[in-house]
Hints:
The chain is of the alpha+beta class. 35% of the residues lie in helices and 19% in strands. It contains 15 helices and 21 strands. The strands form five sheets. The chain has a seven-stranded mixed β-sheet. The chain has a six-stranded mixed β-sheet with strand order 7-2-1-11-20-19. Bound molecules: flavin-adenine dinucleotide. Flavin-adenine dinucleotide binds next to α1, β2, β16 and α9.
Amino acid sequence: MTDTTDHRIRKIVIVGGGTAGWMTAAAMAKLLGRDFADITLVESDDIGIVGVGEATIPQIGIYNRMLGLDEDEFVRKTQGSFKLGIQFVDWGRKGHTYFHPFGPFGVDMEGVSFHAYWQRLHLAGDPHRLEDYSLQAVAAAENRFMRAIDAGRSPLSRIAYAFHFDAGLYARFLRGFAEERGVVRREGKIVDVEQRAEDGFIQAVKLESGERIEGELFIDCSGFRGLLIEQTLKTGYEDWTRWLPCDRAAAVPCESVPTFTPYTRSTARDAGWQWRIPLQHRTGNGYVYSSDHISDDQAAETLLANLDGKPLADPRFLRFVTGRRKQAWVKNVVAIGLSSGFIEPLESTSIHLIQSGVAKLMQMFPDKRFEPADRERFNRMTQVETEQVRDFIILHYHLTERDDTPFWDRCRTMDVPDSLKEKYRLFEGYGRIFRENDELFNDTSWMAVMVGQGLKARGYDPVADVLSLDETRARLAEIRRVMRTSADYMPLQTEFIRNNCAA
Ligand code: FAD
């Protein structure tokens, strides 16, 4: 017999109004439309938001396009800037710098990856760096930026970029978007959570004011505390501190500089690393560190001594434990954002993981029956995704020659997951990069960071011999020339912003 019961979810409650809460609210309002379900978002001004997620990766473009945002308006309203990649300073060894760009290095030729040809020349003593073959890296070094244009086979047709933005303004921007589409915001502190007696499903949350907000599906975007997923449902947390030892950050904005860079800078420090994220109205800075190796005061002192301009506030301290919530979806609660875990901000992946969590939830959107198979699949996909990102981040810490401080010596000598060891072994043989199909970071990223951190391959992919050494040299010289002339065509980022999206 056909089941005619109406199982549709009609009340969705989002707990939390940080980046995760508003990104989820905006996406659901857009994708589900106004009449599908009531969406209520609860946030507490007293508790506030983390508000330091300011750098992104190119996948955010997919989210913005899904919402139908006008990119110039988005950059203007968030005081944003453009990001072509990340510059790593002093990571592999002191005094050494490398760039992890978005977009590919060079072009594949004769069905063989560009990386193989580069590796061959590199082993033959050729001095050119990988960066010379990336338009994004060459342009970033001169503070240039523009969006792709229709230029045939030129790399100017394919410029990969992401954004830096003010996280507070971004949340406000998305809030406007979501509220215009029917999302109802409730301000107040949740002091009690009601569960159904028979199965522990969440039924309602209660605010300090006494107001009771009922729901059928709850999205926990309450940040590190995991109000529903952990404090109520006791899901458990897998701690990754043994591989990702930083557990605190001191953050401070400073005055911006006139020609700001179209990239994030990450500088290794004695007990962690410092970010520099240039926005239109200020530069965001923070020292991510291990509290086992340095005190809060020392971290703040180092941070303040290494700013491009005058600080605009006192340093703010944040605490975290790197790792992941054992299950992101339990009963009728789905954790998105920091409530589902935190890898650490080195490769700006948190906002992407929010977007990816929302996408997976929409793909497996439940009804009131909450099919366990969907939930299990969601949890499995979330686990695999975060572990893959985790390995990529560990690589940065582990592959270092630095032994000049106890922190770096510990990172250099730590044992790493087997999944990462396999990647090292494959690279060390013939310079091969292997990644799973859906893995977030692509071959360019792995290549950039493995080579940048100093991993050496003994050989190169034998099929790169399809071209003679002289032919390989000539073709790679041509690629460098094209990257150079293409970059020369691009305006300074500051000029591009002034003409298109100045706040
Ligand atoms: P939060 O911002 O903590 O929001 C939690 C919300 O829940 C708030 O609205 C709060 O009011 C509400 N809430 C909590 N408890 C209650 C309650 N009892 N009642 C009512 N409301 C409640 N990500 C990137 O992608 N790029 C970066 O460059 C980056 N840098 C980072 C640097 C640092 C040092 C840190 C710690 C994080 C960084 N992140 C970055 C991560 C990014 O900040 C987060 O992913 C993002 O801010 C999302 O946070 P959230 O919305 O999950 O949590």
